Amino acid sequence: MRTLALVTGRPTLTQRRRDATRLDIARTAAALFAEQGAEATTAEEIAAAAGISLRTFYRYFSVKEDAVAPLLAAGGQRWVDLLAASPTDLPLREALERSAVESLTPADDEAVEAMHWTRSLLRDPRLDGTWQRVHAGSEERLRSVLAARCPDGADPLEIRLAAAAATTAIRVALEQWAGSDAPVAGPGSPRDLGARCMRELTAGLRLLT
C-alpha cells in the first residue's frame, strides 16, 4: 500500500516531526558553535541544550559538525523551492536570479538571526566539510528543478553546468559576505553579492540565454 506521502507528494506527519527536531537541534548547535566554536563544543553539550539524550542526537547526526547542516541547507532549499514555484514563462536566467535574491533576503527577525549564525558557522574551519556537503546537496536539487523546466531534448551537460554555476554563485556570495563585516542588507550583503555572482557566473551559459 502506498503511503500518504507518495499519494499526496507531501511528507508524512512523522517525517515533518523528524525534520522539526533536526532543525531544533541545528539551531541549538549553531548557537553553541557561534559562542564557543565547533571544536570546543561536544555532542553531549548540544544534546543537553536541545533537551534530548545523546543517543537521540546520534540517531539524527553521526558527527557533531553535521548538526548544523539543516540550518545551512535551509536557505538553499528555499531558493530551489522558489525557483520551482516561479512562473514557467519567466526566462530561466531571470527566474534563477530572482529566486536567489529572494532567498538571500531575510524576511523576519528569525531569518536575520539565522544569517548571523551562518556567518559564524562559515568562519569556523571545522565546519568546512559540512558546508561543502550542503552545497553539493543543493546543487543536486537545483539540477532536478532546472531539468524539469527545460524543454525536451535539453543537453544534460548544459543543465549540470547551469546548476553548478548557480549554486557556486550562491556559495561564493555567502562565503565572501561571511568573511566581511558587511550588513545583512544593503551593499555587500548576501542579496547584493548573490545577484552579482549569479550574473557573472552564469553569463556565458547557452541554456540560460
TrEMBL record:
One of its GO terms (molecular function) is DNA-binding transcription factor activity. Coiled coil: none annotated. Gene3D superfamilies: Tetracycline Repressor, domain 2. InterPro entries: Homeodomain-like_sf, HTH-type_TetR-like_transc_reg, HTH_TetR, MftR_C. Keywords: DNA-binding, Transcription, Transcription regulation. Residues 42-61 bind DNA. Residues 19-79 form the HTH tetR-type domain. This is TetR family transcriptional regulator. It comes from Kitasatospora aureofaciens. The lineage of its organism: Bacteria, Bacillati, Actinomycetota, Actinomycetes, Kitasatosporales.
